[in-house]
Specification:
homodimer; 8-stranded mixed beta sheet; alpha+beta; 13 helices
């Protein structure tokens, strides 16, 4: 007999079915036991009456406790009018058990699964993440993550974007944040770095003529934790296009997310159906921040106030706190890039690069949602001379420029004008799911102090492993 | 004016259009110049007649050479009957240029773009990968990679699978291949490891009740190169399901790839529309290998002979060469797992675990295509006692078992029977694209000796970076 999932039973009244799942709750009423059986799709009431069960099942039933994994054969019965539970999708039926089989027993979990409140601390929840993910709310976060990924991909494939995997074993370059390093075994003393973002790869894909690229890309920065940034890895919706202007990038992004929210989060309401495009200087003057919260009712959990911020200065005097997925500075000079060192200055301000760099405006665009930056991007420089001038202005010496040699070389062979944006996937999802931290929408996150209590990583490794790599731990 | 892409022009005869792209070929015939303009979608003939051009464009035209990036305004003209080029999708039209603008100049590339033959060595091609990817064949490999990803995802989403990102900063465990290590800054002397495969995470997602999980997952093994394995990173289609039998896993996989090939590679023909399921012992006796090439005509580049191999022994005396994406041994005892240490023995052979382990058969399944293993998987052990017994048989001491403590702990809390498969994404794609190595279907691969000639990684890093991590290079 094929398995029937919980929610399918409502259309199978009178049929004998085979069910699989976990015991969510057990209630005894005299000789009758009620089991709420949970699978990924829902919860189903199973009635266990000794007279209906075989000998073995009666015996088995005695042991059954919450979180046991069962296989149950039984008959789907319609509930009486009074017994219908309108709060449960399967509330119109129940299963009269005929045969019960225990597939796995379960010890008492370290925290309740049935109780949805976050009764356990984060460390304990992460140590037993396989139990924490059984909570309805966490399961839904994982499912919405999956649906959001698929929505974004289908949308961009529909727009003829090509999805490209860029390397995770990449190169350390001075782009601002601290790199995670990976020692090379073949070249002892040399290191790969995990990419802070696929910035250079996506630009080289434009040089390659890919024209429309995207990737839900893993990014790695060895930075200390913040509420909206998990230590270790996070994902960004990395998009890059050739032969576009800024409006093309903004309009496409706005269209994608508007459609996504309508489809996946229909209860959410947008404050502005057409997202305002605000001048950076005006926003700074009016709100004192470039991440204004434009909600009309800050108490409405379902209000979404998106806005674009444009006309940023190309440089800033001092590196601000990095907020955007694409923001990394790497400046050692008087000027730091406001967005990143690849951002294109506005044509009319090119002359100011020499005379008054602080006055140069750029084609940077930030996407702000309810006072949080959820994405940044820009049109990029596509002229090697301007790129070199920006390197000079941010204080790159010959050695640092040498690290970008491949990039400047690529710019010799026919570069299309290009630009893009990289909305933070986890951050946007956490806001849409009303979660306080992005760790709640990541299956197996590191803690705020960058360790994994489940696998107990990072961990010590064998001396031979380090010998192979030609490194040793400093005394 | 909006940009028109090359292939759209065939429906725009008589219209004035704006085009963007690269100069593929320039031919001069007296005062008239013919430019083949290339964009991602195709190649289009542009006719440049001085009398039709403005002054500036006439001047500009003189400089134009292959790989320049242009913006052209012109009128779409139908070609005369004799001039129609049936080999070109745009061969019914040509563009009469009115205005030509150079967006970027290009130096002469180190190898030809127009000539599709692999005239350059791999190192040179990788050093200028942004030019190599301009080749029609490489571009198509990238596009087919993108389409295959999307097909697989849509198919599995359609089957209600949840796509989950598992950690890339993971833990070093003795699973056979050499780990890439990532030193921790917060815990000096401790290391993350890049996952050889998400094996433990996917099993823990089954414990979590996810029931149907998949991921096109990056995997990392610090192994020396082979034709069908790129050093560094590769991707597998990682699928895991609960409450399934082996037939469920095999049938789903077969259905997915059959549909995929029909849709994306319609010229390919399958030798067997229903893939044979072959007994391992019989295959070994008959072919002397467990990867038989079952093609009827080995000279037919379009023939695909898929087969399943089942009934593997659970253990082998000595570790064979690792072929499967899921195969990793990590044995230190007399017995090594034939697949991996999580593979479920057949119920009827459980007693033999004590008396004659070499005779125990397992629920491993390998997918073979044209003599190449393209995927391996298994039903997994879901009983902690059997798992511990397998650890013992492969010679795990208390210290090694300690590294799997979290896994055995998870098994206390209600584990569903589960199993899956992990076809190698790059390897399968390379066969379907008739490419000799998987590096041809990866955008930015490492060379066979594990370096990236483009970014010049791995590379030296600053001493301060190593100080931060508490490591140093061995003298």
């Amino acid at each position: 007999m094929n398995r029937t999932i919980s929610t399918e039973t409502i259309n199978k009244v009178g049929e004998t079915v085979k069910l699989n799942g976990w015991v969510h709750v057990r209630r005894n009423m005299g000789k009758i036991a009620f089991l709420d059986l949970r699978d990924r799709w829902g919860i189903l009431q199973v009635v266990c009456v000794p007279a209906e069960l075989d000998e073995q099942s009666i015996e088995v039933l005695k042991d059954i406790r919450p979180e046991f994994v069962l296989e149950i054969e039984g008959v789907v019965q319609a509930r009486g009018e009074k017994q219908i539970n309108k709060d449960m999708p399967t509330g119109t039926v129940e299963i009269l058990a005929k045969k019960i089989n225990i597939l796995s027993k379960a010890a008492t979990p370290p925290f309740e699964i049935e109780n949805e409140d976050r009764q356990a601390g984060e460390e304990l929840r992460l140590k037993h993440r396989y139990l924490d993910l059984r909570h309805e709310r966490m399961k839904n976060n994982m499912i919405m993550r999956s649906r959001m990924m698929q929505f974004v991909r289908n949308f961009l494939h529909g727009q003829d974007f090509v999805e490209v995997h860029t390397p995770i074993l990449s190169k350390s370059t001075p782009e601002g944040a601290r790199d995670y390093l990976v020692p090379s075994r073949k070249f002892p003393g040399s290191f790969f770095a995990l990419p802070q973002a696929p910035q250079q790869y996506k630009q080289m894909l434009m040089v390659a003529g890919m024209e429309k690229y995207f990737q839900i890309a893993p990014c790695f920065r060895d930075e200390d934790a913040r509420a909206d940034r998990s230590p270790g890895e996070f994902y960004q919706i990395d998009m890059e296009m050739s032969f576009v202007n800024q409006d093309d990038v903004l309009s496409l992004t706005e269209k994608m997310f508007t459609k996504m929210i309508k489809e996946l989060w229909p209860d959410k309401k947008m404050t502005h159906s057409k997202w305002p495009r605000l001048d950076w200087q005006e926003v700074m003057d009016k709100y004192g921040t470039d991440k204004p919260d434009l909600r009309k009712d800050k108490n409405d959990a379902n209000e979404l106030a998106f806005a674009w911020i444009v006309n940023f200065p190309l440089f800033e005097k001092q590196a601000e706190d990095r907020e955007s997925e694409e923001h990394f500075h790497g400046s050692t000079g008087a000027w730091a890039p406001s967005h990143n060192m690849f951002t294109r200055p506005k044509e009319e301000d090119l002359e100011l690069l020499d005379s008054d760099p602080g006055k140069v405006k750029s084609y940077q665009h930030d996407l702000v949602l309810n006072g949080v930056e959820v994405g940044g991007g820009a049109l990029r420089i596509y002229d090697a001379k301007i790129q070199e001038k920006v390197f000079d202005l941010i204080g790159f010496d010959a050695k640092k420029k040498e690290q970008f040699k491949h990039f400047l070389t690529a710019f010799k062979y026919g570069v299309p004008p290009h630009g893009g944006i990289a909305p933070g996937f986890d951050r946007l999802l956490s806001i849409l799911q009303s979660e306080p931290t992005i760790r709640e929408v990541i299956a197996f996150p590191l803690t705020a102090d960058a360790k994994d209590p489940l696998m107990e990583s990072p961990s010590e490794v064998a001396k031979e492993q380090l010998d192979d790599l030609g490194i040793q731990i400093k005394k």
